[in-house]
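Contributing new records

If you add data, match the layout below exactly. Sequence lines come first and carry their own label; structure lines follow with theirs. Keep one chain per record. Anything else will be rejected by the validation script.
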Amino acid sequence: MPILDSHTIEFFSRSPEQTRRIGMRLGGEIKAGDVICLQGDLGAGKTTFVQGLAQGWGSQDPVSSPTFMIVNLYRRANGGQFFHLDAYRLESVPEAEELDLDAMLAEGALIIEWPERLGDLIPKERMWINLDHIQEEQRQMRFNANGSRYDGLLESIRQSVFGGS
């Protein structure tokens, strides 16, 4: 596991199950106000990762890609919620502004696929995860933390996936 710098970790997933498990570990840590950005081409494993995230977080709702809905809402028993936003079909930043990310963040965590389409609307403090399709089942995942909250999340992922420091 190369540690690129103190704000970045990178590792390889060898199967959809492993990608889902890594998502579950992060999901167990996220809370309202968190912003998780998922960047990667079609088929890179973003939806698989979000399925794990939702499961680890405790979602009662099944996960599907919100490509046609733009935003899916997931809930859990204690009343928590998180928003899964897919910016793939957004035509412009003004169109994205109408989604009111601030209102979502006031009520839950926000998971964003195709975050590069939202420009400066994305908070500066966030976790940015890059997924790259390497081979049929293999994915390279790079987690980059921006802000102390996300450095903490990164450290707990490092601990849960790799054990010691």
